């Protein structure tokens, strides 16, 4: 198998390939786009970092390419959709640099607490000053961790070794994982209010971008310390600068920035602030991490050649082709159910039950289970979740998976039910296929009958005369057109579950207005992929 390496990769990490007689490894660094286009057709695998862009144009020239291996977590430089359409597997190395990132977090925190950068500069300049550099101890302080995944969990263990109290906010982590780490899971508001040190370890997405804003800084303890070694933009940088200048925050340490290299005046002011400790995105820059990620992708290439499962594939599932063809319509259904309930479900699921009823239950439903699991988890982790790695990620998060099959069905020839169990309660969604389209027929204990559309509203309230009219009036005043409405209720004048499809997204202010008008027990906007 011919493998081309186009970016600087740890030579030690390439040893698994070098030691395999079936592999022919060529190191070709600094190729121009034209040179890469001319060369790529000769190779079956490519190993890259961030310096090589594997876009559709490159993949068009990759006539023999079977696997793209990204030696790192991010795959922003790889057109995964284009690769998938050509049957090219994309793998990354999501675990190799977790220890490096956790240690860098602690390095920045300790440097900030003990004024290491400024004291170092002072002494090197010939001065002997001690009083200006009096620091702070971590012992008995409370660390608040936002995101208790691979890196956040390691930071928690290291903080406890410093005799810190550790609390964490992560709505996608089970109570069991918190217990295993000795960490108390709390709400974001509680974490903001009680933390002496705040550190973030989440992916950057629509949910986490600007997650910590000015209003959060106002609620923090005076003198809090803030660390960001995750992704630039999770903490609003203008709000961070204002909090430093006001004295609300005693010190802050950032390794990552919303634009890299930093160019805006806000970032320049933040980087230059005397209370900031800064590094240029070095979280994964250790010799060990670079070796680890190279070893990980090298082994994945060997696993591919040996026909073994790929733990870190971000596309291309592997199941029996005949079974997959039969399951194809139901994979659309379970993906829809997973996408829908993931936006409504309670935090910290401990267990997910996949129930298959009717003729479908005669077959092996494992492909459906992992497809649904991937849909549920894909909004909750930085790593791309698919049918290959869904079970592994669920296990890491302490989520138990149960599959139930029964061929007896009263109402539908085939029915799929997803049940999420968590400390906050139990949530159920069920669906079937009708005329080739997924249809949701049950939510919680309410009978429903609708096909998901791109923009929807889900409301739960006490059924009283005139409420539907109020909802329609408010949405109309905000220029939101209602496409369809489904009303589910258990009895007259009892509780009601209303699901609306709307032509355009509904903003938070409008949601709050509707909730107040109908005294909603629950209201949420759901956005389904087209």
Write up what this structure looks like:
- With 530 residues, the chain is of the alpha/beta class.
- It has 4 domains: 2-96 and 288-306, NAD(P)-binding Rossmann-like Domain (Rossmann fold); 98-278, NAD(P)-binding Rossmann-like Domain (Rossmann fold); 317-444, 60s Ribosomal Protein L30, Chain: A, CATH 3.30.1330; 453-530, 2-Layer Sandwich (Alpha-Beta Plaits).
- The protein is 34% helix and 24% strand.
- The protein has 18 helices and 22 strands.
- The chain has helices at 15-18, 33-39, 56-61, 80-85, 98-113, 116-124, 150-161, 175-181, 188-194, 214-219, 237-246, 265-272, 287-306, 321-342, 366-377, 390-396, 467-477, 508-518; strands at residues 2-5, 24-27, 45-48, 67-70, 89-91, 142-146, 165-169, 184-185, 197-200, 224-228, 249-254, 276-278, 349-358, 400-406, 414-422, 425-434, 437-443, 446-450, 455-462, 482-489, 495-502, 522-527.
- The strands form 4 sheets. The protein has a 7-stranded parallel beta sheet with strand order 8-7-6-9-10-11-12, with helices on both faces. A 6-stranded mixed beta sheet has the order 14-13-15-16-17-18.
- Helix 1 (15-18) links the parallel strand 1 and strand 2 (24-27).
- It is globular, with a radius of gyration of 26 Å.
